[in-house]
Amino acid sequence: MKKGDHLFLVDGSGYIFRAYHALPPLARKSDGLPTNAVLGFCNMVWKLMRDARNTDVGHPATHFAVIFDYSSKTFRNDLYPEYKANRSAPPEDLVPQFGLIRHATHAFNLPCVEMEGYEADDLIATYCHMAEEAGADATIISSDKDLMQLVSPSVSMYDPMKDHQIGVPEVVERWGVPPEKMIDLQALTGDSVDNIPGVPGIGPKTAALLLEQFGDLDTLLARAGEIKQPKRRQSILENTDKVRLSRQLVTLKRDVPITETPDDFLLEPSNGPKLVAFLKAMEFTTLTRRVAEATGTDAAQVEAAFIPVEHGASAHGPDMEIVSSQTDDKVQDTPEKQDTDEKDEGDTPARLAAQRARAAATEKIDVEAYITITDLQTLKDWIDEAFETGIVAFDTETTSLDPMQAELVGFSLATRPGRAAYVPLGHRQGAGDLLGGGLVEGQLPMREVLAQLKRLMEAPSVLKVAQNLKYDLVVMNRHGIDIAPYDDTMLLSYVLDGGAARGHGMDFLSEKWLGHKPIAFGDVAGTGKKFIGFENVAIDKATHYAGEDADVTLRLWQVLKPRLAATGLVSVYERLERPLAPVLARMEQRGILVDRQILSRLSGELAQNAAAIEEEIYALIGERINIGSPKQLGDILFGRMGLPGGSKTKTGQWSTSAQLLEDLAAEGHELPRKIVDWRQLAKLKSTYTDALPGFIHPETGRVHTNFAMAATTTGRLSSSDPNLQNIPVRNAEGRKIRTAFIADKGHKLISADYSQIELRVLAHVADIAQLKQAFAEGADIHAITASEMFGVPVENMPSETRRRAKAINFGIIYGISAFGLANQLSISREEAGAYIKKYFERFPGIRDYIEETKATARELGYVETVFGRRIHYPEIRAPNAAVRAFNERASINARLQGTAADIIRRAMVRIEPALEKAGLSARMLLQVHDELIFEVAEDEVEATIPVICNVMENAPMPARTLSVPLKVDARAAHNWDEAH
DNA sequence: ACAGAAGCTTA
DNA sequence: GTAAGCTTCTGTT
């Protein structure tokens, strides 16, 4: 073996188990010999050998071996008798397959290596080491983390089933430490599967952190006294010996006294007849045929090999059957019929829309026709062309999905269907190994191009069309470019077909309306670990992709825009959607200030408290299970400990929901309470205190969420990366998170939220006199409801009575059912049904409203908000009663939730001009469905609050005047917790 | 690696 | 009983 050679080492034992568990039971037809793991192994090796010989997937293999465990006893058992002690015996129908797989390896003409006293991993380590010494490369075929300590610049890992390569960067990304520190990390964390102790309470995240702090394990152990977190420090000090032992156990032996050298593993050509003979013996018909074809073997001429089976195979069998996997995905989404009347004569909007749709679906798209622009004159010509046509579709290509992080790589323009061009700006070459790599030559300079682009983007006479414009708006704003006027095809689709389609992404819309499947982003830029970033995509490929995006966007606009007028949705689009995009773009760009110190302190507290509860839980159950695993938890709680188990989930697991555990706690059980408490702490820590700091932008120092405009069916926004619409508020522990959201120096946060907006909307749309009066008088709405229902006075009302009325009020908003109400109130379904009946007797208007909503939803297939937004329920007529009932409840809720969403959208669109008019500098930062958060200079707080409240309370006007007043509560404070 | 389930956070 | 998004665990190609 020499420099330039490439040794492939297959972790045979690993794949046996993986194949066995991944594949359905399979047995040889003639005698019932179980063979599923053998088939999985053969398929994997066959694919791997083809890839390994193939020069264009990388450095081809020159040497090749499959390594197996010899037996379960190894030198590690001498070190630590408990090692892998919790492993149970392999399943009965796997046992005979161990031998068969060794036969398979021989049939592939591959060496089969194993050695008494050592695990396969040790042999792999030894051979990798030898390859490295010889200057050769090695690839380990496995995805086992135990092998990651071997990764180096010349040793990588590869998983052929997932086509996933693991090199040094992947190890660092996955575990937070380089491969040479994997041993230290594993020693700290331990491994429950192999029964390696480690330090309790230290997981990979903490271990990586500690190793980064102290450099390596020895230093860490020597200076453990310096660890700040008392719990963590104590835990490590107490377990020093265990850690040292764990390190010995996880360290792979690189000097196994091997009998075969890598030179013995020289890759030989496959022996077609030999392999086919084996596969025939296994009765793998498909693979036999495939291998015969590929190796030029006449399978009919080959006799099945005789394979001796070590363990009686006939014991298995009669109950096994070959399970064929059926995956006939039903394609059911044909473009639905349009709500247009094509019998009409003349050029009605509906006719025009239908014509456009038909035309668009028949025109072909040719990505080869797009042009790459590399000189300024051509760019100017294209911009002139856009000025002539008055419309241009465009799309920006960047390095990131996050517009605040994205660097501009290029952009595309389309002036007519089929006529598109791409302007590359930031494509790089020779990236990867070398540091970044330089710009590809021949690209226009960013500055001059942006000046030209600005001229076009801000030209009042040219309509700019984009898909998800808000993204481009943020990216362009960061380069000092504004975009106006504009249309957004995603928002058009959302307004036209909200609820009717599976999302409003461009790929989906293109298939639906143009009958054309665009090039997938993943096909040009890669996905997962093969993702290279758009800046590293070749310019010709980028031109096809980006040109197509602009072309498709323009064609979609031609189809969708006419439908707006045809369906009477122009005002929804123009009042509630289009103007909101730049408002949200600004909010996202501003971001909110988050105090890192507060979160870090909270994280420490949570870790400590959780660890304490963890120990109490372990003491109670007498075992260190993974508390975060509902499966393990259920088994212990209801299986071994025999607690009165409630329901099971649909997958047959015991349910361990908070509700159920609370009930058990109420019956006096100690453990469930602790589990609920632990979960709360774990949730707060992982989702908030640990994750949020990672979202602080390196330059702005603030957190910039992404608001999705077209994600919900009802018209609400959603927030992600991070989601700032679900920051805890309901209990004291969680509210501490909110104290980390703060205003800048000299500023305060104002939180302004609508009081009971959905109930007010209900009172208005259902026209309920008692409710309207209660709101007009500013009365307690739940108490009034209770008083009406139960005939008790509002004065001195028992809190339980009010609570029930409140649950019913919310139930109405959610499309009430006896089942749901019963659950909510922990009462019987009969009792809940009686409440609902009583409620409808007192408020017959609400029953009428519900019935009317269901009827129109069924008749039209959609419901409308007060402002005319349509929300489609294509399944409202489903034959399945449960599906139908769900759609009915959703449609009842949609009118209320959607109207409230429309109202706050209107407020958001108006608030900035109102503040400006009042000469105030307040900046809107967040929306949380019925709440708006602003950052305001301290000396402007007093003046700002009434402006905000005024805009919000009058937001429905003048389009609609509600018969119920809207009420907004607003407060200012230095942090979000106090302001709310 | 990825998808789905379970669980938890919000309005 | 409505509407969302995120984390962890688990099973699977």
Automatic annotation (TrEMBL):
Residues 390-566 form the Exonuclease domain. Residues 734-940 form the DNA-directed DNA polymerase family A palm domain. It catalyses: DNA(n) + a 2'-deoxyribonucleoside 5'-triphosphate = DNA(n+1) + diphosphate. PROSITE patterns: DNA_POLYMERASE_A (PS00447). Residues 370-565 form the 3'-5' exonuclease domain. Pfam families: 5_3_exonuc, 5_3_exonuc_N, DNA_pol_A, DNA_pol_A_exo1. Residues 5-268 form the 5'-3' exonuclease domain. Gene3D superfamilies: 3.30.70.370, 5' to 3' exonuclease, C-terminal subdomain, 5'-nuclease, Ribonuclease H-like superfamily/Ribonuclease H, Taq DNA Polymerase, Chain T, domain 4. Residues 327-340 have a biased composition (Basic and acidic residues). Its EC number is 2.7.7.7. It comes from the Bacteria. The keyword Transferase applies. One of its GO terms (molecular function) is DNA-directed DNA polymerase activity. It is an enzyme of class 2 (transferase). Residues 314-350 are annotated as: Disordered. In addition to polymerase activity, this DNA polymerase exhibits 3'-5' and 5'-3' exonuclease activity. Belongs to the DNA polymerase type-A family. Single-chain monomer with multiple functions. PANTHER family: DNA POLYMERASE I, DNA POLYMERASE NU. This is DNA polymerase I. The lineage of its organism: Bacteria, Pseudomonadati, Pseudomonadota, Alphaproteobacteria, Hyphomicrobiales. The gene is polA.
